[in-house]
Design goal:
Strand order of the largest sheet: 1-2-3-11-8-4
Oligomer: single chain
Strand content: 5-15%
Structural class: alpha+beta
Order of helices and strands: EHEEHEHHHEHHHHHEEHHHHEEEEHHEE
Shape: globular
Radius of gyration: 21 Å
Helix content: 40-55%
Number of helices: 16
Length: about 400
């Protein structure tokens, strides 16, 4: 049985751009299950190898529900996990909620959006071109695209979109906002969504929120609290990560000669390139959601005791050399790519297909429209977000 003498502070430091912290690779090789000290709630375990991460994500002995409303659970955010959330439930409750949501969030509904996503992207790029070079990719494209798509899907009026953008930035904070600010922001967003739910109770509408209100399973239906929580989750998850990844992918493709030119010359490679960028780009800031072991479990020679908190780092797993050849190299033609950018197991991201469509459309349209796109400032001058759960540039000036 492996013993663990050193307890490391986690996250391992403020992220540097999109760089992978070198300690993850070292731990993966030498100490795949390691002890960490979290900013709140004490100590836990960190899991970094691909197969171990898959095990934790798919094994019912590692519970998300056990973390709800517990101040003593190790975590990176000031506020503990909230209940009534799809993210913080286990089977059978998670299965019930996911099944009801899936009825409204069908693959057919999402696939049918592709032409409209392209229409939105083309319109945004038209406006960007009219504004002239240089332009900032984030307000021009990265943010308005996923915000517009998820708001239209849910049926949120365009005039109200600014309300949850502000809330989202606060709710996704680790150190950029106080606990009081996070609680107030979430309460404001919940009040707004409760109003939207009430409207659809009185006047049913053909949008995703309306479909969630109507969703039933053998006479069961989503409670008011579940509906509001799901609305919060879908709104934030439906735009925050994709907006950052549009900016991150653009930065990565423009930061090294040949990448943009390859994508421009080989548009058929875009779907595979998106999967590789999802694997390669370090989106998270090093935190993650804790799980609680409900019984003793052994992983890679380490005994995890019942009641212990366990964190997985899927980004480290996506750089596991035993699974991905030349894992630290971006290979836009990579074929074997079982990455876990959208998670794995029970909590695999419901919005993965929508995110893929948005990212694919952007990487098809942007090189077509701006074949000579380049960074407008030196890489060292690009400002990056700090104190957030996800990474991304605050601004990304480009020229053409």
């Amino acid at each position: 049985m492996t013993t663990h003498a050193e307890v490391r502070r986690y996250p391992f430091g403020e992220p540097i751009r999109l760089d992978a912290h070198p300690l993850f690779a070292k731990l993966q090789r030498e100490e795949p299950i390691s002890r960490i000290q979290l900013p709140y709630g004490g100590e836990g375990w960190l899991v970094t190898r691909f197969e171990d991460v898959r095990t934790v994500l798919a094994d019912a002995r590692f519970s998300r529900a056990a973390v709800v409303d517990r101040e003593d659970v190790p975590r990176v955010t000031p506020e503990p996990a909230r209940g009534n959330s799809l993210l913080n439930t286990d089977a059978p409750e998670h299965t019930r909620l996911r099944k009801l949501v899936a009825k409204a969030f069908t693959g057919q509904r999402v696939r049918a959006l592709r032409p409209h996503v392209r229409e939105i992207v083309d319109g945004l790029l038209d406006e960007m071109a009219r504004g002239g070079s240089p332009a900032d990719v984030i307000p021009a494209l990265a943010l308005p695209l996923p915000v517009t798509v998820i708001c239209e899907m849910l049926g949120i009026p365009a005039r109200d979109q600014h309300r949850f953008r502000e809330f989202s930035d606060i709710v996704m904070s680790t150190t950029a906002a106080t606990r009081e600010q996070i609680i107030a922001a979430r309460a404001g967003l919940e009040r707004y969504l409760a109003e939207q739910v009430a409207e659809r109770r009185e006047r049913p509408r053909d949008d995703l929120l309306g479909a969630l209100v109507a969703a039933r399973d053998d006479g069961d239906r989503l409670s008011e609290a579940e509906l509001v929580s799901l609305g919060v989750t879908i709104l934030i998850a439906g735009h925050e990560t994709t907006a950052n990844q549009i900016a991150n992918f653009t930065f990565v493709l423009l930061s090294e000669p040949g990448r943009w030119e390859f994508l421009r010359a080989h548009p058929e490679s875009v779907p595979g390139a998106v999967e590789e960028l999802l694997r390669y780009v370090q989106l998270g800031s090093g935190g993650g959601f804790p799980r609680i072991a409900t019984e003793d479990v052994e992983l890679s020679g380490t005994r995890i005791r019942a009641g212990d908190a366990v964190f997985v780092n899927t980004q480290a797993a996506n750089r596991d050399e035993s699974v991905f050849a030349a894992a630290d190299t971006l290979d836009l033609t990579r074929e074997h790519n079982p990455h876990m950018a959208f998670g794995h197991g029970f909590h695999h991201c419901l919005g993965a297909q929508l995110a893929r469509i948005e990212l694919q459309v952007v990487l098809q349209a942007l090189p077509e429209r701006f074949p000579n796109l380049r960074l407008a400032v030196p890489e060292a001058e690009i400002p990056w977000k700090r104190g957030m759960l996800v990474r991304g540039p605050q601004a990304l000036p480009v020229s053409w």
